[in-house]
Amino acid sequence: MTDWTSKAARHLGDIAVTMLVFLALNRFNELLFIQFEHSSGINWVFMPAGIRLLATLLFGFAGFEGLLLAGFYLNFQHFDFHTDARAWSGAVAGALGPYLAYLFAKHWFNLGPRLQGLTMPRLLFTSVLCGVMSPISHHAFMWVETGVVDWHGLGVMISGDSIGIVIVLVIAKGLIALADRHGPGIQLASRWRP
Prior knowledge:
The protein has 194 residues and is an all-alpha fold.
């Protein structure tokens, strides 16, 4: 396989992983936190927002593409939005906000692969940045479309996204640190051999 073919395959794989994990976590979030829903698509705890940021941190532009495709699927097939413009803008905002937060964090914190350089204070800052940027993007699109800003909905979305991001990224950072501490899977498997 040529170099560009393997890069394209990896890129498509990153898109697919992002989509599948986002959709699965969205379903899990609905099962666990549906009672905290403020309105369709706005929840006091929204763990998929953590996948939005994590996917862009790990996969860059491929994460953005996967989020965009997952957003289109959810907004047109799952959520009940009143207009197609709301569904389109929601998908774009849901992918664009985290990608912009990733670009800022990458520049400011000089992030390396596997989230190296993302200390707990930087993680919290990046989480809050994404937790603010994505909801503001959503509500900016809604303001352009309707001329009205749902300030309470914006506050709930900022809170829910920020909480969800912190939950998911702390778990991911812990799993990565655990994997790094114990080495690759081959070394783990060799410990269990007689």
